[in-house]
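Tutorial handout. Part one gives the primary structure; part two gives the three-dimensional structure as tokens.
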Amino acid sequence: MTNDTRSEPSAPVDPDKSPAPAARVSKARRAIKKLRVTMLLHRDFLPPDDVSTIDAAEAHRVKTEISVRAALRELGHDVTLLAVHDELAAVRRAIEEGKPDIVFNLLEEFQGSVLFDQHVVSFLELLGAKYTGCSPRGLVLARDKALSKAIAAHHRIRAPGFAVIKRGGGKRRVRLRRLAYPLIVKSLTGDSSLGISRASLVRDDEHLAERVRFIHERVGSDAIVEEFVPGREVYVSLLGNERVSALPPNELLVEKLDPKHELIVTEKLKHDLRYQVERGVAVVAAELAPETRARLIRQSKRLYKLLQLEGYARIDWRLRDDGELFFLEANPNPEVARGEEFADSAQAAGIGYEALLQRILALGLAR
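Part two.
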């Protein structure tokens, strides 16, 4: 724990305004007031004090925690790490005794469930603590892929046709006559491509039933079955609370994608560093026609508001060859490691990494 002398909160810079040019970043950094920041993270992602003691694979696994801690300290903030698994009492003690100005929330699950992270954020609100990222309302709406798609469709934002198959149906045969093959089967609530592989793309009833059972039994969640949309995978990163700024869109590219295979963001593609290098996986600035770009940003901002997202988020889309956009999912509190897509998109907008984290802090303070 840090001492009891609290620093004043950061000056109430309007976090929704466009950033200062890069040449002014160092001057702005000198003007930043020191904050007491508690980084809230899962105990399995607690980085060592000396990161030189871990190998490249482990450093990659905890890259977000390493990046955020280093950048916050570079900004001059007093940073304390709070690693939890199922200990709300520890969270309460950290707030009441440590008296942080703000909690930098990197927690993605609690008690082993990704559905419980929103309860921890609600607990922070009950304690009167400021925190970064999304509110509990936005986490609930965005976490459920079916609910977020239903909200999008109600507001005439196109999404793939889908159906939810809940656990507890036994070994019954799965038939979805109103959906057209090929279909892709995912966890209804899992993130980071959890449970997605090439086998997730199915073309008949037999393989559909088999993959639904996999999600039910191996992943342990309800399944969402979507009509597969071929095309480009495009991401829009956004920042803001009441006012929302969209960063330049990114696109996922796989240089050595087998021509016989459709582009699927599998768990292996998302997390296996060696596989990424072998296949030439990269997230790059998306080259888009001006009208498509404008429509993509406009609809991303609408979804950000409709899903009550706050702080920062990423909206994932499929862009079909005919120019049609399909909303795939919303990611509140996406990965903000240095060099990953959110930070790269910010960099393309003239926001350096430390400036990005300071803006995320400012959005949390201004909530």
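Part three, for discussion. The chain is about 35% helix and 20% strand. The longest strand covers residues 232-240.
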